[in-house]
Write a structure and sequence with these properties.
Chain lengths: ~350, ~120, ~100, ~180
């Protein structure tokens, strides 16, 4: 058994777990600060350690401690096991979603080739789809086990919404797979390091977004709907359903639903950055030609910079748009996104033929 | 090294994190139950009606359509990988399939299974 | 000892037998249906095992088609179960014996 | 060695959850056990280097077909319905079936000659598959080559199922039936 190799793997896994959890926690702070900014308020600013407030950045820690100290309440008539299992299942996809996403360029160190990607699977992107399709059970169990009719209503809405948007999600990725001809995310990122050439000079990086502007919008919309955030937060519509599937949850179990939600924002951003924005590639900089240290640093900064921008964009959407009505939500999924995602396939075929990457004969 | 080993390690880390959270909320919180507290929460009103009612079959239709379209999406993945190699033949093969897909969607739409309100 | 074809086939047979037992002894139509899926799944496992040890991928393509058929079958089958439930208010197959000779 | 450990863990998991499907009284528990069983079998597929099949097993089987089952159990409110194996004759039947099942498994195990190898037909060992572009790509080449006709027929089958289910459930969507 290759002990060093295993240690490297464990290190990478710890890194992505750390990143997802901390990004998720910081997102709760960022969301409240940004909401405050938009609504002309101050936002969290009271928590301090020895007088240092750090812009309220300590708030997530205080929230975490608070949630741990709260009662873990299981209502009478609830199914105890499933009530506990539900937040665990709901959080799981967000925690493992980053496993196949390359977050930096590969490098050689100590006679060993190291990819900054936890697992390079043959099915690549399908792994993300497979894992995220299991998240539905967390929501379904939460409502079913709570013995509360509002929970059940929220659950039914949430599951119907999640599965409805899974179709356009899977379909819009097809365009990317057609363009790059592989499911492996590291190869997709490598191919995005090339350039569209005009007169022999690379003018535009071959990023997915330039091949697939429509696909980008479709996937982004579908993924925001998958995270169940405003404007797609009908499952939690406070004013209609009390709080939806998590009514009967308290303390850290409730926190797990929300940490999972924020963590899935991070996973969504990472996925979009990888598929459409070149992953860790920096435009016009040939990263693989640089020495090891600047290569890794630039790659990491590029990748996580894109992730932060996309997270910020999602927060902006959350505080700008009002909630849909349920029929509008379903119409958007089935009557707008799905036909558009289907049309995207022939459009991609024609586009690739025009660009010359594809021959009919 | 087997490519699934890192996946297993990731799963293990995820289970550890989840287990830690569940343990925390079980171990540190107070435990005080009362009759009223255990009632289903309906904004303070006394709970009314059964908690597990049957719900509209429209949701079931959505799940059913999802299943069938999901399969069709999965059909497209191997084709998308081979798209550049298959050339015109691939286009012809998939056109037939896509026409079927669109036909199915059009039928469902026409029958009103996508109408919500 | 690396698992070989015999191990996979035996496992597949066990899953199949469990599924068949479920079909014959349970009375809830939904659980019977799930047991059928279990049997189908067992046969898929045998196909994939054969495909691996014969070193050809045809078995996997068959499994792919098998899943398609399973999806179509489940969608229609569950629609039938719902329709039956709506008219008879039960999914217990002992109480559904109108077609009993 | 590690393959053997993985096999035994996955096999024991698959069999015990399969038993859960058949023995548990609550339909929701049965459904969840089946989801787990399917995931364990997906793990076995991955162990057998059938990556694409493993991925769609989770996406389609565990993530779509079983969601439909769960939905129906919740829809018909069957979660509370406790289904018994049955009166004494049911138990006798269960015992007979169990014995027959065990006999079947023993028969397969004996005739499968643990340790037998069968001749390779096209030499697609995992290493060769990886060299030729990966499992998903090769499955695709079969699917859009020799298996093209079944592929298109499967497409037709799906549309037929789509029409069938909509027709079956259509009465429910009728506006007059709405509250």
């Amino acid at each position: 058994m290759d002990v060093t190799g295993l240690l490297i793997v464990v290190g990478k896994v710890l890194f992505i777990t750390f990143v997802v959890l901390n990004f998720g926690a910081i997102m709760t702070w960022a969301e409240r600060k940004q909401a405050a900014l938009i609504q002309d308020r101050i936002g969290p600013n009271r928590i301090n350690i020895g007088g240092f407030k750090l812009l309220g950045l300590i708030q997530p820690i205080a929230d975490g401690i608070k949630m741990i100290m709260k009662e873990d309440f299981i209502p009478a008539g609830a199914h105890k096991l499933y009530h506990t299992l539900a937040p665990a299942i709901a959080m799981f996809p967000a925690l493992v979603g980053l496993a196949v996403i390359p977050f930096g360029p590969s490098f050689d160190a100590g006679g060993r080739h190291i990819d900054l990607q936890v697992a390079n699977l043959d099915v690549g992107i399908l792994f993300v789809l497979a894992v995220s399709s299991l998240g539905v059970y967390g929501i379904a169990l939460a409502g079913w086990a709570s013995n509360n009719k509002y929970s059940l209503l929220g659950t039914v809405r949430a599951t119907a919404q999640m599965i409805s948007y899974e179709i356009p999600m899977g379909l819009s990725i097809i365009g990317i797979v057609m363009t790059y001809g592989t499911l492996e995310l590291n190869k997709i990122v490598d191919l995005q390091g090339e350039y569209f050439r005009l007169g022999g000079i690379g003018v535009l990086p071959k990023w997915g977004i330039f091949y697939q502007p429509l696909g980008f919008i479709l996937l982004f919309t579908a993924l925001i709907a998958e995270t169940k955030r405003t404007p797609f937060d009908l499952p939690e519509g406070e004013s209609e359903l009390v709080a939806g599937y998590n009514v009967e949850y308290s303390g850290m179990k409730w926190g797990m639903f929300f940490l999972g939600e924020f963590a899935s924002i991070v996973v969504v951003s990472a996925l979009i950055a990888t598929l459409y924005l070149g992953g860790w590639q920096v435009p016009y900089v040939h990263l693989t030609a640089l020495p090891v240290l600047p290569r890794i640093l630039l790659g990491l900064i590029s990748f996580f910079g894109k992730v932060v921008v996309l997270c910020f964009l999602q927060l902006l959407i959350r505080w700008t748009l009002p909630r849909f009505r349920y029929d509008q939500l379903m119409d958007l999924g089935w009557k707008r996104l799905l036909p558009l995602a289907i049309v995207n396939v022939p459009i991609t075929a024609v586009w690739l033929w025009v660009l010359g990457g594809f021959k009919l004969g | 090294m087997n490519p699934y080993l890192p996946v297993l390690v990731t799963f293990a880390a995820a289970f550890a994190v989840i287990g830690m959270f569940l343990f925390f909320c079980h171990a540190f919180g107070p435990k005080q139950t009362s009759k009223i507290k255990s009632d289903p929460f309906e904004c303070g009103n006394p709970p009314s009606g059964p908690a597990h009612d049957r719900f509209a079959v429209r949701f079931y239709i959505v799940a059913m359509l999802f299943l069938l379209f999901d399969i069709e999406v999965v059909f497209l993945y191997p084709w998308a990988i081979l798209f550049r190699d298959l050339g015109g033949l691939g286009i012809a093969e998939m056109s037939f399939f896509l026409v079927l897909l669109v036909g199915g969607l059009a039928y469902v739409w026409w029958r009103g299974a996508l109408e919500w309100e | 000892m690396t698992p070989d074809l015999g191990h996979y086939l035996t496992l597949s047979a066990m899953l199949f037998a469990i599924g068949a037992t479920g079909v014959l002894v349970r009375r809830n139509a939904l659980i019977i249906f799930m047991s059928v899926e279990l049997m189908l799944n067992a046969s898929h496992l045998a196909l994939v095992a054969f495909s691996r040890f014969r070193e050809s991928l045809d078995g996997q393509v068959l499994v792919f088609f098998g899943m398609t058929v399973a999806a179509a079958e489940v969608a229609v089958g569950l629609a039938i179960i719902i329709a039956v439930y709506r008219s008879r208010k039960t999914v217990n197959i002992d109480e559904l014996r109108q077609l009993h000779g | 060695m590690s393959a053997a450990i993985a096999f035994w863990i996955l096999a024991i998991g698959a069999v015990s959850t399969a038993l859960g499907v058949v023995l548990m009284r609550n339909p929701i528990t049965s459904a969840l056990n089946l989801v787990l069983s399917l995931c364990f079998v997906a793990g076995l597929y991955a162990l057998l280097e059938a990556h694409f099949v493993a991925a769609i097993q989770v996406t389609v089987y565990a993530g779509a077909i079983m969601v439909l089952f769960t939905f129906v159990i919740m829809l018909l409110d069957l979660g509370q319905v406790q289904d018994r194996i049955g009166p004494p004759e049911g138990l006798v039947k269960a015992a007979v079936m169990g014995l027959l099942g065990i006999a079947f498994v023993v028969m397969v195990a004996k005739s499968a000659h643990l340790g037998i190898t069968i001749p390779s037909t096209s030499g697609l060992t995992p290493a060769n598959v990886a060299r030729a572009g990966g499992n998903t790509r090769l499955v695709g080449e079969l699917l859009f080559g020799p298996y093209l006709l079944p592929f298109e027929i499967a497409g037709v089958l799906l549309v037929v199922a789509l029409v069938g289910t909509v027709v079956m459930a259509k009465r429910e969507v009728d506006p007059r039936r709405r509250k």
